[in-house]
Amino acid sequence: MDIDIGRAKRGRRAYAFDDIAIVPSRRTRDPEDVSVAWQIDSYRFEIPVVAAPMDSVMSPDTAIALGKHGGLGVLDLEGLWTRYEDPQPLLEEVAHLRGSEATRRLQHIYTEPIRAELITERLRQMRAAGVTVAGALSPQRTRQFARNVVDAGVDLFVIRGTTVSAEHVSGQSEPLNLKEFIYELDVPVIVGGCATHQAALHLMRTGAAGVLVGFGGGAAHTTRTVLGVAVPMATAVADVAAARRDYLDESGGRYVHVIADGSVGSSGDVAKAFACGADALMIGSPVARAEEAPGRGFHWGAEAWHPDLPRGERVEVGTSGSLSEILFGPSRVADGTMNLIGALRRAMATTGYTDLKEFQRVEVVVQ
């Protein structure tokens, strides 16, 4: 229902994950009887976790580690790992920057050109480890480097931006035609972000295998402050899940996966994202807290080093434990930052559901 903001404007009420809660049902189950497996295209994952393509979250080594834990690590193919032979000294430097100097230094570090041969080298390193290989490019760079990515043997191609549309209009350059591009590729494509029913439906019609919901960046982005653009995630996920249902009918049975990307900082947010209709999660800050994370307790995304209008910042998230402990426990804290999968299993068991698709039907209330 629309609400009058003033005489000339009406708006719809929207909800964040903090605004809703999951309702227990009459039936409960043993958490060990619950499946949290997820499959997109021909690729099956034991946990529905996709690590965000951010330099503070994913290196080739952490992508491999997450893959061996049953999730999907996505490498940022415009990040430090494809600009520098050895970015470790720079990652160490970024961890010691203070205040506003962090933004200026990040902008300078990321002026180094992307090297196609490093894209190939990093993806082949991941493939040699035997995990599912995924890499991400922004829409602006996709046409330039797509062939390098595919030739390197990527399994899943991610096109990720703050906001990605199927109908980008530009008077400066030829925009990426997503429908033509996806049709010509030999690999499944995950694309986003988006936050509305209409935008998601348009992205689904391009042939994407999955759609990212949200504006990326999460805890490290300031898009709402800088641009005034935001949609609370509970409403965004539910709206895009409705688009998935409508497109399933429209296409005669083609299922496009909904992947919540942003505002998932705790295990409670994980459960609520699935309750709102997500098939999987793309998470950043929870993984950035891992001992193995390249950010060394700090977290930032591509928005933080934009050369003209930064819409993110480097934030300190600290280190909670190993990647295994963050995903599977045991947890040593009661704030929902560890044992994310154990908490998801327990939430599903408490409400009586055995798999993620069923759990999407759980009742929720507005607090």
Secondary-structure map:
Blueprint: E1 2-6, E2 9-12, E3 20-22, E4 38-40, E5 43-45, E6 49-51, H1 60-68, E7 72-76, H2 88-95, H3 101-109, H4 116-128, E8 134-137, H5 139-151, E9 156-160, H6 178-184, E10 189-194, H7 197-204, E11 210-213, H8 223-227, H9 233-251, E12 257-261, H10 267-275, E13 280-283, H11 285-288, E14 298-299, E15 315-316, H12 323-328, H13 340-350, H14 356-359, E16 364-366
Parallel strand pairs: 6-7, 6-13, 7-8, 8-9, 9-10, 10-11, 11-12, 12-13
Antiparallel strand pairs: 1-2, 3-16, 4-5, 14-15
Helix pairs in contact: 1-4, 4-5, 7-9, 10-13
Textual characterization of the structure:
The chain has 367 residues and is α/β, with parallel strands linked by helices. The chain has one domain (30-366): TIM Barrel (Alpha-Beta Barrel), CATH 3.20.20.70. It is built from 14 helices and 16 strands. The strands form five sheets. The protein has an eight-stranded parallel barrel, surrounded by five helices. It has a two-stranded antiparallel ribbon with strand order 1-2. α1 runs parallel beside α4 (116-128) and α10 (267-275) crosses α13 (340-350). The model has no long low-confidence stretch (mean pLDDT 91).
Radius of gyration: 20 Å
H-E string: EEEEEEHEHHHEHEHEHEHHEHEHEEHHHE
Largest sheet: 8 strands, parallel, barrel
**Alpha plus pi helix count:** 14
Shape: globular
The CATH architecture can be given as Alpha-Beta Barrel
Q: Quote the CATH topology.
A: TIM Barrel
The pLDDT mean sits at 91
Task: Work out the helicity level.
Answer: 25-40%
